[in-house]
Amino acid sequence: MAERLPDAALDTLFRTARTANGWTGEPVPPETLVALYDLVKWGPTSANMQPLRVKFLVTTAAKERLRPHLSPGNVEKTMAAPVVAVLGQDLAFYEHLPRLFPHNPSARSWFEGKPELIRESALRNASLQGGYFILAARALGLDAGPMSGFDSEGVDREFWQGTSVKTNFLCNLGHADPSKTFPRSPRFDFTEVCELL
Description:
- 39% of the residues lie in helices and 15% in strands.
- By secondary structure, it is of the alpha+beta class.
- The protein has a four-stranded antiparallel sheet, with helices on both faces.
């Protein structure tokens, strides 16, 4: 069984970590993005389905393709981010189950021909992987700025056209400019949202 992480690590991952809204301009090397995914892939998903797909936009040209699909309030910070990750969910994830979940040869049949179950499972598990994505970025010394606030159909056409992938959310990555970080917003206490039964 794993030991409890030290408080400094918990601070990095949770307590002092913030959503980034501006960037220092320090670049993010490609090998850091490889290391990020190499952490994310170990997070659990139902039947090991791993529906997350990621496009890392690292060039100005790639980010400009995204610009027309962003809500106005997200344009400046996104264009300035060293990396913009487009996180998608593959609705054909079940095609890979014979490889990813080999101990149950019938797993693919659980989903075939069941579009609602496919959509629900892909969204839930890709979102779960999206949470791991943010934690992995923080663990590697990056700041993350996950976002809604975009035209998902436009992003799908721009980056996933002709595939079975649909966009889930966007996440800017880099090193945050503290002067552009918003004050910490309130959080619910345990007793407000949790119940022991």
